[in-house]
Each structure stands twice: as C-alpha cells, then as structure tokens.
Amino acid sequence: MEPRRDTFPRLLLHHADVRGAHPSVREKDLGIWQTWTWGDVAAEVRALACGLAAQGFRRGMHLAIIGDNRPRLYWTMAAVQALGGVPVPLYQDAVAEEMVYVLNDADVQFALVEDQEQVDKMLEIRERCPRLLHIVYDDPRGLRHYTQEFLHSYDEIQALGRAHHDAHPDFFPSAVAEAQPDDVAVMIYTSGTTGKPKGVCLTHDALIAAARGGVQFDRLTPDEDVLSYLPMAWIGDHLFSYCEALVAGFTINCPESGDTVMTDLREIGPTFYFAPPRVFENLLTQVTIRMEDAGALKRLAFRYFMNVARRCGAEILDGKGGVSLADRVLYGLGKILIYGPLRNVLGMSRIRVAYTAGAAIGPDLFRFYRSIGINMKQLYGATETCAYVCLQPDGDIKLDSVGKPAPGVEVKIADSGEVLVRSPAMLKEYYKRPDATAESIDGEGYFHTGDAGIFDPDGHLKIIDRAKDVGKLANGALFAPNYVENKLKFFSHIKEAVTFGHGREQVCAFINIDMSAVGNWAERRGIPYSGYTDLAGRVEVGDLIQECVEKVNAELAHDPVLCHSQVRRFLVLHKELDPDDDELTRTRKVRRGFIAEKYAVLTDALYGGREHQFIETQVKFEDGRVGAISADLRIRDARVFDPVAAAA
After folding, report:
1. What is the pLDDT of residues 421-458, one digit of tens each?
2. Fewest CB atoms less than 10 Å from the CB: which of 300, 393, 558, 647?
3. Which whole-number Å values give the CA distances from 576 to 192, 498, 511, 619, in the listed order?
C-alpha cells in the first residue's frame, strides 16, 4: 500500500524515501553553495522536531519564524508541522513594535529567529508578550554573551533532539502519523492595508490542493530549480518555495543575502521563477540604467531590436501565426544579439515559467518580458485562497488578464462586481475572528475577495482594482487608481505612485522617483544633488516625470473605460513612501487611505489649484530615531488628451 502523502511532513518523508540523494535545498554561505539532499533534510527536521518536543513544544502550540530565507527556517516549518503545531512566519523587516501585535494575537509560545538582529527585537518586546516562553536562534554570531535561560541555539535544540530520538526512536514517526490533513499547517497574517492584520489559518489539505494544482498545470518536475528570496511570511513564497517544492520534489535555492540576489540568480539560473511586479519593475529599471550608460551603437541596436520584440516577440513566444517572415528573421537575429544576452544578465536564461502576482502588473511591463522570450505569466490569488485562483495557460496569454480559473476552482462575479471564489484551497478560518470568517465566506461557500473584476468573452478574468478602491469621478466615469498607478510605474524613473479622484472633478497623483534611475540620469547630465529630497525637488526632474505622466495620459485616452482617468495635476513627493512610516504594507502595497489622511495638506493643494505647498513630515529611521523632512513642493499641471476610444 502506498504511504499517505496528505500532510507536508509525510511528503517530506516520501521524498527522502524515493529521491533521498536528490538536492532538496541549497544555500550560498560565504560565497560557496552548500547542498542538502532530501535524505539530509529529513534527518535535520527529525532532530529539530524532537528537540522542540524535548523543550516542551506540544501539539497545538504556535511557533513564530522570523528571518531571511534560510534552509533551517524552512525546516522549522516541517518540524513544527510534524509535531502538530502551527508555524507563524513574520516579516523579518518588521520593527519590534509591529511584531508585538502578531505574537500576542497568534498566541505564540516559541520563536525561532535567524540572528542577533531578530533576537534583540524579541528581547525588546518579550515582557509585552507574556505567552512567549522560548527563543531559538540560527546564526550564533554576536550572541556569545547572551545568557538568558529562555534563549537557545538551533544547534543546542538539535543536539537535544538527537538524544531524544535515540531514547525514543518511535516518537517522531508517531507524531507524523498523528497529523491530519485538516490540521492547520500554517498561519499567515494579512498585510493589513485597511486595519489590523488577521491570522489566516490554512490547512495541509488546502495548501496541498493548491500546490498540486499548480504543479500539474505547469508540468513541474523534481528537476526544477527555484530561487527562494521573497519574505517567508508572504503566501507567494510559502506556496512556491515550500508547498510546491514538497509536492513536486524540486530544489529551492536560498541566496546569501538580499544584496546578492541578482548575482545568485545568475549563478543558479532557475527554471521556475516567482516575483511580485515590483521586482520585475526594478529589474527593468536596472536594464534601462545600463543601456543609458552604454555606447551609442549598443543603444541604437538595443532600441531597434526592442521595437522588433514589442512588435512580434510575445506572439512568437505563444506560437501564434500572423508574424511576417521578415519579422521572424529579425527577431531571430535579435535573440542572438540582444534578447539572449539580456536574459542571461537577468539570470533568466533557463526559465521555463516565470510568475508574477501580489499586485496588478502593467501590460507594458508584462509585454516587455514576454517579448524577449521569457514565459512570464500572471496568477491571481489571495492569502485566504492559498494564492491559487486563476492561472494563465501556455499559448493563451492576455496581457490585461490574470488568466482562467485554475483547476478545481470556481470563480463568479457578484452583482456588485466583486470576484467570488470557491475551491478546496481556501482558509479554514481567521484565527480568533469568527466574525471576520463569517463575513468573508458566504452561505454558498464562496470567499469574497474584495477585488473588482470582469470576465472577457474568452473566459479570462480581468481584475480592475480592489473593489473598495474602484470609484467614480464627479462626471460618473469609472476611476481605478491601481490601474493608473501601474501604468505610471512602468517608467523606470517612477518607483511609486498614488492617485486620487473618487468623487472629484479630476485625477491627481503623488509620485515617488526611483533614486537609482533618476540619480543616474541626473549624474549623466551634470545635475548636482545632495539626497532624495534635493533630487526630487529639481526642476529638471519634474520635467522628466511630467513627460512620463503625459505619455500615460496619451495611452489612457485610447481606453474606452478609463479615458477620463488621465492625471491632470501631480507632485513629486519629498520622501520615499516607506513601510516603517506606515505608508506601505510590508508587501509594499500602498495604504492609500492612510496616505490621503497623512498628506491631506498636499491633496488640498492639488485640488485647490495651488502651484506650491510647504510640508514637514516626521520620519522613522532604521535605528529607531525619529526625524523630520521638510520641503516646498512644486505642483504641476499635466497635458491631457481627448478620449479617442470614446469618440470612435
């Protein structure tokens, strides 16, 4: 009889049995890639699970995991699940104050953290987290003189576990056997864009259903390589780097640090890649900067062949007809001279499938990657649906859709325009929030996503925006702020944008410049600046951003639905929007309501017809200090265009 594979610990033991010598995890440490096989990982997880049990961890307890993507932190997930406990990953860049809420709300009793930085955060807030009993750390550097009794090294816990296993060899297999598919496998907190984060309880059943659906849909095999670098507290990383790896048996690769991701990406050459739109935006920005610094001949060749790619690259990738022989020949030449080397520089030369999700992606950005031969696809999902709702089938990609309902998923549009989802891959509940659970899942079992969307005639789902964010201008025309913001962010010089317009006569915007792209642009033109605030306030930079805004307006003029959402007035903010200042979530989603309230003086100036506005803003620095940034911001009028589609 085939062994059961209905929980993650049982999947782990299955891979250890059938492909024990196959690489399971790699990590770059001190410049050298270290490898652990599936057999190695099973032994590591067993030692940790037994050690945690010896330390008092019991079925039903919750353990927080905090740190960068590290093999030992992924193994902790499996060890906790093997004991019938619930791992609760937290964002590693969250300040200590933010962690207090989650640790208390989730009733966390154990915390396993990466290094001294995270240990210090735990020590700072421990007195306000009365349930927190034990803190375990992975990296011992800097912790030699930390002598608290509740503080333990990872190695110490594993040594305890090996002794426990020697004394009780049946303990670990029995614990794994006791786990049930409907047990909560992980608790992942929502980003909290509109209020306090909620703990989403996801079962083994739900996550494995999502992972199996994705693996079968894209024909993933044990030979795939994935770069695991996104926050472990994000459902996207959990699905792709943990769940699908345990279902398919492929290899995850952990970079040395956040600063070396691009180098490590090129060294690994993943076959399967996942990133939110902001990562793809940043990569495109880097390419743009490099090309601006290149010689005249190289710039000319790049622009020429990128025009060819935009014209026919996506169609050639999808195997569609209608591309002329001349274009196919030119594209083939471009592949040798430009696209191939560019994919290699990006670390994407081996990619079979690249996914993006987490926020809407601009069609222009999407087309860029597909046009150079990268099989980039969008998926649509939420934490509550295990990031599994819609997928884009190969050869049937639409740049402005998120694909068709994934296998086993039912999607319908409510009368209000909200997207509703029913599938096996859904949350069990919000932790300690039966009211929120009942509110989000209706009597028919449909989860209310909070997104507004429509189906096109071919059955592809188009997400317009968050339902709560979609509004109307004073003239009754539809206004979708996120859609406009994404078109603005396609430009390498714009890092973030926030648009306003609901109930107003016109659309106005705040713009954050991209410091690296605009700084490079300014240096090549001999424009001096002393920092972000100074650079953002330069007249030349305002002119540069105005060009980008007006190009977006020209494109919007051709959109029959959003042609009235052209940006009429804008300003370049004096500071970067920052999660530490509560302006963005930890997944870098704009907290539009908070920003509108915080910068009310600026929105009043935009809509009041003023040309300048002074503002002083309090900011938090990384070391905890508080300071202030002030500036006199110039407000600009942008050119708008007559609606072409509406007049047609």
Report:
1. 999 999 999 999 999 999 999 999 999 998 888 888 89
2. 647
3. 20, 12, 9, 10
- In a shared domain, residues 52 and 192: yes
Here the CATH number for the domain that contains residue 565 is: 3.30.300.30
Tokens at residue 70, please?
A: 């590290």
Beta bridge partner(s), residue 559: none
Number of separate domains in the chain = 3
Q: Which of these, 578, 602, 598, lies nearest to 590 by C-alpha position? A: 578
Whether residue 608 is contained in a domain is answered as yes
Q: What pLDDT was estimated at residue 1?
A: 46
Taking the CB of residue 401, how many other CB atoms lie within 10 A of it?
23
Residue with tokens 């949350």: 427
Q: 24 near 37, Cβ under 8 Å? A: yes
pLDDT band at residue 380 under the 50/70/90 scheme:
very high
In the listed set 175, 209, 243, which residue is the last one of a domain according to the structure? 209
CA–CA separation, 319 vs 113, rounded Å? 47
In this prediction, what percent of the chain has a pLDDT beyond 90?
A: 74
* pLDDT single digits (tens) 199-251: 999 999 999 999 999 999 999 999 999 999 999 999 999 999 999 999 999 99
Task: Identify the domain containing residue 635 by its residue range.
Answer: 471-647
- What's the pLDDT tens digit per position in 10-30? 999 999 999 999 999 999 998
Nearest-angstrom CA–CA distance, 477 and 506: 10
Count Cβ atoms below 10 Å from residue 523 Cβ, excluding itself: 12
